[in-house]
């Protein structure tokens, strides 16, 4: 870089650190509209700060700490830091650049690589803290589909939990795919029968699958042990960026390892061992499939939580309620006490299983 340019950059950075954001909280409030961020990056980004830079597009694949981001650029991984410009938003750093974000990295001062811009997101998946304010923690961004992993047994399948994941997927505008794993246990009636009735489990899985398929949500019956359903799953993962979610122990990591044996991600037993002291990552990680596309594993993230502000949206996004809801008498029908409710009518006619309606009430109650 020329001496003159250096000076100019320095001046810019001084000026920029003095920029006062009228309300810092605005950055936290990106829930359904990322336009603030888009504007800052695409419209307001002045040419001057990019002058003399060697910017390359990349993707954040892992966050090591508040300061270290692993970014994939042209198939290679670089440890990067946030530029001074982005660090102004230090308090929001975690939400500012997350796994899956598309970024521009400046290579001018290699081996120090700086993330200079973060592009606006197609979508994101967040979880919410407990307590009154339920602070948002973004898990990952730019996700094509979320693989809702459940197991038919061990742990027992819980359709109520599937509904919760489906609500979250709908709220965050991410396509869902349900994977019912451990199907091998169904054919193993002789095996120790902790949860009872393994022999009936296959028809149970098929019944659950039939219901969700009927309301338009794809379901695969798989087994990471026997390989059942794995070809179909691979076909659906190809060329997509998929985030695996689901209760711990349902076999997410086992499925990933089956499809990509080279990864050797630690499954249950090893993770437990690591809890005794070894460092394990609790963040999301983005990894490439050898058959193209990416996966996002979220080893330390226990469950999906919904935000209390989502409550008013659940009556429309709850799986299977659309397009019924269009025929409700009230636009903001909660399908409980209202008259002319199409959801309750479907329930009375047996078109909507009581179980699903009760699951809806439980989710509403919990928010
Ligand atoms: N029988 C059976 N066990 C499985 C299957 N998939 C995973 N497991 C076991 O379930 C446990 C939890 O698996 P893991 O992949 O760590 O689950 P995760 O917590 O969802 O990542 C491990 O003991 C696996 O060996 C399967 O398809 N069949
Ligand atoms: Mg795991
Ligand atoms: Zn209604």
Task: Write the topology of this structure.
Layout lengths: L2 H15 L17 H9 L3 H4 L4 E9 L5 E5 L2 E7 L1 H4 L5 H4 L5 E5 L6 E6 L5 E5 L7 E6 L3 E7 L7 H13 L3 E7 L19 H14 L4 E3 L8 H8 L3 E5 L6 H8 L8 H8 L9 E4 L5 E4 L16 H4 L24 H7 L5 H13 L1
Parallel strand pairs: 3-5, 8-9, 8-11, 9-10, 11-13
Antiparallel strand pairs: 1-2, 1-4, 2-3, 4-5, 6-7, 12-13
Helix pairs in contact: 6-13
The structure holds guanosine-5'-diphosphate, magnesium ion (MG) and zinc ion.
Features of the shown structure:
367 residues; OB fold (Dihydrolipoamide Acetyltransferase, E2P); Rossmann fold; Ribonucleotide Reductase Protein R1, domain 1; 6-stranded mixed sheet; 13 helices; globular; binds magnesium ion; binds zinc ion
Short recap of the structure:
The protein has 367 residues and is of the alpha/beta class. Helix content is 30%, strand content 20%.
What does this structure look like?
It contains 13 helices and 13 strands. It is α/β, with parallel strands linked by helices and 367 residues long. The protein has three domains: 14-45 and 52-120, OB fold (Dihydrolipoamide Acetyltransferase, E2P) (Beta Barrel), CATH 2.40.50; 142-297, P-loop containing nucleotide triphosphate hydrolases (Rossmann fold, 3-Layer(aba) Sandwich), CATH 3.40.50; 311-366, Probable gtpase engc, domain 3 (Ribonucleotide Reductase Protein R1, domain 1, Orthogonal Bundle). The relative contact order is 0.10. Strand 2 and strand 3 form a beta hairpin. It has helices at 3-17, 35-43, 47-50, 84-87, 93-96, 159-171, 201-214, 230-237, 252-259, 268-275, 314-317, 342-348, 354-366; strands at residues 55-63, 69-73, 76-82, 102-106, 113-118, 124-128, 136-141, 145-151, 175-181, 219-221, 241-245, 285-288, 294-297. Helix 6 crosses helix 13. The protein has a six-stranded mixed sheet, sandwiched between helices. A five-stranded mixed beta barrel has the order 1-2-3-5-4. The chain is globular, with a radius of gyration of 23 Å. It is 30% helix and 20% strand.
